[in-house]
Structures are given as structure tokens and as C-alpha cells.
Amino acid sequence: MREKKPGREGSGGANSPDERAVEIPIDGELDLHFFSPRDVEEIVSSYLSECLSRGILQVRIVHGKGTGILRARVHAVLKKLSMVASFGLAGENAGGWGATIVRLKPEE
Asked: In angstroms, rounded to a whole number, what is the distance separating the alpha carbons of residues 25 and 29?
């Protein structure tokens, strides 16, 4: 899965040479620290779709603890996705309230 990662703010827009593609490994763990909050919905839904197509049914999404805004945005996206069977905060050994564990519905 490839996502575009912008360079510095104000660096010239969408066609700027500073904009570069980032390869995201599809391994059941998505770390959102490297992405803009405005891209979360697209990244999360695309990543989960790819996991599902590869038979990965449990995914850990790392959103960080911070103020909780990114966590809330991730959870809002997950509530809308029909492929999501359930989700909840990770246990203390998996990131606590800085990560969310998502269980996907198997493809039929």
C-alpha cells in the first residue's frame, strides 16, 4: 500500500517535489504518527481493506495518547466501516489508550 506523505507545510502544494510516496507495510499494525489527521479516514479504510484481502483479521492502529482527538477520529471511522466486527483500546502491553485493536469480519 502506498500513501503520499507531504513535505513541510507550505512547500508548494500537491504537485510539489517535496511530496513523496510512503510504502506502508501490510502487517497488521498501522502507526498513524507519520500522517496528517486529515488523511486518517482514507488511510485507515484503505489499510483495513488491504489487511482483510490478505486474511489479516486483527489490526493494531497506533494513534498515540495525546489529547485523544486522533483516537476519536479513528474510532469514528471504524464505526462507519462494515468490515469492522469490533474494536477497542489495546491492553497495557499493546499500547493502552494510545492504540486501538480492530477485529475484521472474515470475507465470505
From this structure: 8
| pLDDT tens-digit map of 54-72 | 999 999 999 999 888 999 9
Q: Is 73 strand, coil or helix?
A: helix
Q: Helix (H, G, I), strand (E, B), or coil: what is residue 30?
A: strand
Q: Which three cell numbers stand for residue 67?
A: 489529547
pLDDT digits (tens, 9 = 90+) for 71-84: 999 999 999 999 99
HSE of 21, CA atoms in CB hemisphere, 13 A: 5
Supply 13's cell numbers. 502544494
* Domain spans in the chain, listed from the N-terminal domain onward: 26-104
Please give the torsion angle defined by the CA atoms of residues 43, 107, 78 and 97, in that order, rounded to the nearest 10 degrees.
-90
The CATH number of 26-104, from 3.30.1370.110, 3.40.50.620, 1.10.10.10, 3.40.50.720, is 3.30.1370.110
Q: Which three cell numbers stand for residue 72?
A: 476519536
